[in-house]
Amino acid sequence: MTSAPSNTSAPQTIRTVLDFLRQLAPLAVAESWDNVGHLWGDSQGPVARVMTCLTLSPDMAEEAIAKGPN
């Protein structure tokens, strides 16, 4: 089983989260039509909050703006 990044070490980056997610779901197993991976933002930026969704809709975008994930 893969462990989530620890909160007790150096500040987490978006890259740390991406690496963790790629261990759970490798990009190589995605379908050819699937738009996967890091699509926007600085992967070296700090991260404290994460929000995921399968399909970005206007409602999900509004929720993300309201909740303020990195």
Quick gist of this model?
The protein is an all-alpha fold.
Features:
30% helix
Structural overview:
This protein has 70 residues and is an all-alpha fold. It has one domain. Helices cover 30% and strands 0% of the residues. The chain has 2 helices and no strands.
Secondary structure blueprint with pairings:
Blueprint: H1 14-24, H2 58-67
Order of helices and strands: HH
Rg, nearest Å: 13 Å
- Share of β-strand residues: under 5%
Unreliable stretches covering 5 or more consecutive residues: none
Mean pLDDT over the residues: 83
